[in-house]
Amino acid sequence: MFGAISLRVSFSRLSSPALIAILVIAAGIATGCGSNGSSTPTFIGNTKVTVMVTSTANDQVTNFNLQFKTLTLNSQSGKTVTLLSSPQPSEFMHVNGGTEPLMTVSVPQDIYSSAMVTLGGAEFVCIAQDPTGGLLFSHYSIVNQDPVVNFASPITVTGSSMALSLNLQVSSSAVFPSCYSEPIFSGYSLSPTFSLTPLLVSPSPTNAGNGLVTGLEGTITAVGTTDSGLTLTIPEVSFGTRTIQANANSATVFQGASGLSGLDGALQIDGSLLATRMEVENPSALNISTGPLTSVDTLVPVLMQYGRTQMGSLLTDWVNGQPGQYDKSPYFDFSNAAFQISGQFTNLQSLPFVPSFNASNMVAGQNVDITSGPMILGGTTYTSANTITLIPQTINGTVEGVSSSGSFTVYTVSLANYDLFPQLAVQQGQTTLLNNPSQVQVYVDRNTQSLGAGSTLRFYGLVFNDNGTLRMDCGQVSDGVSTPAGSNASQQSAAGEPHAVSHTGSRGMLPVTIITRSN
Questions:
Q1: pLDDT value for 478
Q2: Which of 200, 225, 260 lies at the terminal end of a domain, its last residue?
Q3: Confidence check: pLDDT of 153 > 80
Q4: What pairing do the DSSP bridges indicate for beta strands 241-255 and 229-235?
Q5: What pLDDT does residue 314 have?
Q6: Which of 16, 305, 429, 434 yields a CA-CA distance of 20 to 30 A from 221?
Q7: pLDDT digits (tens, 9 = 90+) for 304-348
Q8: In a domain, 223, yes or no
Q9: 165 in a structural domain
Q10: Is 452 left (phi over 0), alpha (psi -120 to 50) or beta?
């Protein structure tokens, strides 16, 4: 079975190793029809199994990295099957409500009732303002922590191919009362907890629950002999990279991807992704950083971004532990940057407001891709941003009201006070552009995938600042995640001095405090 899936990738062709560009790819996972019925199937041979990673989270955590050392399945007949035998990293917050492939392996057909994961490392990061008014990045990491994998019911592996969803339950994995606590890291704990379930892939997937992949970023490190087979390297920063396979065919749509018309060909039935859309944001970029804006300076055209994923020398410098990265938070001069909106959504012209993203209306909390040339680390000169592209993100909030505007249903959504928009809206040296940073107007049309119900929901889409009002063009609605009991990001200590600080710095009007704990 095959279907269309949407994902974003940055790539470098082998003929030009220095070239890095952002791609948005729509892809399908080649899967067969596994049986999970009540009757006992006949097991013959092996099944090609694709393990997909996803997460269920509110907005309390900004970054959650894991390095998988091993992943094994245990069958009811007493067999143990190794799915993963070499380290593979994954960042989970960018797949909150979404999904992307971790690996594809051949698994003996059987009924499996438990799984075991071992980790090489695990970390999460929260972002807030510290009592002095600067930015606070609290970084909590562990090694040798035994994770938990929960099964709702035994999983039958049969057929030619199938997919499994490995879902990180972030709220039960990263527990803490607030980003800034006194004493330091009071109440913090990190115990990765997963659920593993079959992923019933649709012939035409429309959401993460049936095979849709959105926002996948990586580097094309190999191209097949027919230009249809691609090897993608996925950057995970703290714990290295991993590789997956993807395909393009004659139906693949290229947006801004001049010179890539050769990436067409036959669809391969191999468990990889079928790319149906690729978007190049900047073909000449040497570095790419993806994640939320954390500050936009008023006096000088300088911004700071938290890079969940980073490529080029950004990735190399961070992995090698070089100074100047400010915990994956580089500074960029945006005075000459070109501002863009991702082409992932095609209904922008139908919105009942004018969607706009530029130097005067971008705000901290928006999710962006930033491309640049050579990095400048340290001093008072900043790396020049070449392009800044608004890309989709997930928010978790409480629905306070529902109305309509034209063909759109409009949800008035209240954000928790630990969300990045209310946390970062008022900072030293930054103009307050938002009238109510704790509220988002979410626009849903007939093409929006609705996977959730209730008053607390997760919304995936593009967030715009429309003259002081946050508005989202929404592509998917999922079940929400409640606010942890006792969690209140505004109830921070009044103590004026940071403690257990591994790095502090101030460049221009953007003070930064990094607080870390590693076990």
A1: 93
A2: 200
A3: yes
A4: antiparallel
A5: 56
A6: 305
A7: 999 888 777 654 544 444 433 444 667 899 999 999 998 888 899
A8: yes
A9: yes
A10: beta
Q: What is the pLDDT at residue 18?
A: 34
What tokens does 100 get?
Answer: 């992307």
CB atoms within 10 A of CB 86: 9
Domain that holds residue 176: 47-200
Which of 168, 273, 178 minimizes the C-alpha distance to 228?
Answer: 273
- Tell me how far apart the terminal alpha carbons of the chain are, to the nearest angstrom: 45
Question: Does residue 499 lie in a domain region?
Answer: no
Residue 264: count of CB within 10 angstroms of its CB? 16
What rounded mean pLDDT belongs to the chain? Answer: 78
Measured in residues, the chain has a length of 519
- Tokens at residue 415, please? 């954000």
pTM for this entry: 0.86
Same domain, 296 and 258: no
Instruction: Determine the pLDDT at residue 446.
Output: 92
List, for residues 8-22, the tens digit of each pLDDT value.
Answer: 444 333 333 333 444
Q: Which of 364, 235, 232, 370 is nearest to 289 (CA)?
A: 370
- Joined together, the tokens standing for residue 102 give 């971790």
CB neighbours of residue 262 within 10 Å: 12
Helix, coil or strand: residue 172: helix
Tokens of 437: 């940073």
Number of domains in the chain: 3
Q: Decide which of 219, 245, 280 is a domain's last residue.
A: 280
